[in-house]
């Protein structure tokens, strides 16, 4: 089968003919219909860890079951599915509480030689990770279930109610999902703070009530001018130093700050400001089966329509060049790959 393979940080991904992953016992083979290019994939390529040489990226995929491994019941070839791209130990404290996204030994499909990802015609996934895609949900939308599950989990960990004023800092794919789930949760006003004009447009298209350029003036003043008061729930969806402090400075008293952006640098903040307002600061990571199911339900019922997040669809042959482009220009929201060549 054909796949886009990581070789090193200095070379584009390579389109190669490689052996098709066959389902092991308890797994199914999947023909990949759509797979999203994720910022984490760009990040891993940039890092260039030689241990990843030969790995096929891709953890945000939807597809059709093509083959059953030994012992598989309840699934049939032709079933349309998405899968949690995580392999957990089943024994750590998080796993024992079904919080498999927090497993201490978590391994992701698409970042592992054992679990080849979706930048390929086929992949193989365990049945315990599968979710059925409802008939009225397209593969374009189904490929967004994984990143939207990250957003859904973050929103579910906050006390958003119908009077809530919500601030979302950053609208990459995760922030865009947070905007949508904050609206689904009934927030009165959802405001996006975003430096990119293109992403402010996206935020409006997916349902933000207002957008702010944080460089255009004092952030708290801009928010109060729109919503009449400071935000009581704030999501940090960027992951660069200084933004948790920014959230503390604009928060209403007793507000909740939920950090979803992944920052690999050291950050510093002034706890005193958070203490004075009795803020609650939390962090959200990954997702569980419940989040996947909730996202699919919201898509099926029409409560959630993430179509505006889908920037473009490309074929496998275009992956190496488009991937290089995305590493330098941070434009668009979600590029999907169709490895089936238009067949699915
Ligand atoms: Zn991702
Ligand atoms: Zn575990």
User: pLDDT below 50 for ≥5 consecutive residues: which ranges?
Assistant: none
Distinct compounds present: zinc ion
Strand-residue proportion: 15-25%
Q: Sketch the major β-sheet.
A: 7 strands, mixed
Level-2 CATH architecture of the largest domain: Alpha-Beta Complex
Number of DSSP helices?
11
Name of the CATH homologous superfamily of the largest domain: Medium-chain alcohol dehydrogenases, catalytic domain
Q: What is the N-to-C succession of helices and strands?
A: EEEHEEEHEEEHHEHEHEHEHEHEHEHE
Backbone structural class: alpha/beta
CA-based gyration radius: 20 Å
Binned, the helix content reads 25-40%
| Shape by Cα distribution | globular
Average pLDDT score: 96
Q: Please give the number of β-strands.
A: 17
Question: Number of folding domains?
Answer: 2
Distance between the termini: 16 Å
Q: What is the CATH class designation of the largest domain?
A: Alpha Beta
Please give a structural write-up.
The protein has 344 residues and is α/β, with parallel strands linked by helices. The chain has two domains: 2-148 and 287-338, Quinone Oxidoreductase, Chain A, domain 1; 158-283, NAD(P)-binding Rossmann-like Domain (Rossmann fold, 3-Layer(aba) Sandwich), CATH 3.40.50. Helices cover 28% and strands 23% of the residues. The chain has eleven helices and 17 strands. Strands 3, 4, 5, 8, 9, 16 and 17 form a seven-stranded mixed β-sheet that branches. Strands 12-11-10-13-14-15 form a six-stranded parallel β-sheet, with helices on both faces. Strand 13 (233-236), helix 8 and strand 14 (256-259) form a beta-alpha-beta unit. Helix 4 (145-156) crosses helix 5. The protein is globular and about 60 Å long. The mean pLDDT is 96. The site of one zinc ion has 5 residues, from loops.
């Amino acid at each position: 089968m054909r796949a886009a393979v990581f070789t090193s940080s200095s070379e584009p991904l390579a389109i190669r003919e490689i052996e098709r992953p066959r389902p092991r016992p308890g797994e199914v083979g999947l023909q990949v219909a759509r797979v999203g290019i994720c910022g984490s994939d760009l990040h891993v390529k940039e890092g260039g860890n030689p241990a990843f040489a030969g790995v096929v990226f891709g953890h945000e995929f939807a597809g059709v079951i093509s083959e059953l491994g030994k012992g598989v019941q309840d699934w049939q070839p032709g079933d349309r599915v998405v899968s949690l791209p995580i392999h957990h130990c089943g024994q750590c404290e998080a796993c024992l509480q079904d919080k498999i996204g927090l497993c201490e030994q978590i391994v992701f499909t698409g970042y592992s030689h054992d679990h080849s990802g979706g930048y390929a015609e086929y992949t193989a996934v365990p049945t315990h990770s599968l979710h059925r895609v409802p008939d009225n949900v397209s593969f374009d939308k189904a490929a967004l279930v994984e990143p939207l599950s990250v957003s859904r989990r973050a929103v579910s960990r906050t006390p958003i109610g119908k009077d809530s004023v919500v601030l979302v800092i950053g609208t990459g794919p995760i922030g865009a999902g947070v905007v949508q789930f904050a609206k689904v949760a009934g927030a009165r006003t959802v405001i996006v703070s975003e430096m990119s004009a293109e992403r402010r447009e996206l935020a409006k298209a997916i349902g933000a009530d207002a957008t702010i350029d944080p460089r255009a003036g004092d952030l708290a003043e801009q928010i109060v001018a729109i919503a009449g008061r400071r935000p009581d729930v704030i999501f940090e969806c960027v992951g660069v130093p200084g933004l948790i402090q920014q959230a503390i400075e604009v928060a209403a008293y007793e507000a909740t700050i939920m950090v979803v952006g992944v920052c690999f640098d050291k950050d510093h903040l002034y706890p005193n400001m958070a203490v004075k307002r009795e803020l609650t600061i939390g962090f959200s990571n990954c997702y569980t089966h419940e989040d996947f199911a909730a996202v699919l339900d919201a898509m099926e019922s029409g409560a959630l329509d993430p179509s505006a997040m889908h920037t473009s669809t490309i074929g496998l042959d275009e992956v190496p060049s488009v991937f290089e482009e995305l590493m330098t220009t941070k434009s668009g929201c979600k590029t999907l790959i169709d490895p089936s060549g238009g067949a699915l």
